[in-house]
Design brief:
1 helix; three-stranded antiparallel sheet; 13 strands; 208 residues; elongated; mainly beta
Length: 208
Amino acid sequence: AEPVLPPATAVKAEQQPWLMLVLPTVSLDVGTLPMPAYGLGAGIGVSTSGWRSSVSGAIWFKQAASTASALDSFQTEYRRRSLQANACRDFSAGAFAIGPCVVFAFDSVTAGASTAVTNDRGSRLTPASPTATWFSIGAGPSGAWHLSHHLSVVAAATVRLALIRPRFSVRGAVDDGSLEHGLLTYETQAHRVPFAAFDSSLGLVWIF
């Protein structure tokens, strides 16, 4: 028997590129900062013939962490912004699709420092490394549930590897009573970006 070919219009529709608006997305990151972090983001992308790619940005909720050194106790605050580009291969089954993705990400974190414990030693704290930027690469699975021709729910999980590992340090000066003139200065590492971090996200994709 002759094989039945799909109508030309169906093939054309399947190969036609579609514009995607990714809005909003909710993300959870474990590892990049001292504690798990949550972020909100949005992005744009295209989808065609089982492939999709997008560029998105996220702003993360401010995070504060306390650190104690031999000379003082202090609190650091982290404000993070990130951009990422990804490419995914989708394998569809009905209204669902799943497949692997590769990710290239850029992060920028601004840190601030303040005294966490009140004392009478005249402590002065400043961030020795107030801003850090770095790139990372990653991969992981992504799945989509197509609610209609124009709306999908997309979830992704990614393990990212940092290409460089910035350090966040705090520089302080205290009067511990042992010096006749001046203050005793010190520098303490508050956090270092780890080599690996885990990121997961959930969002709505509007297809045009």
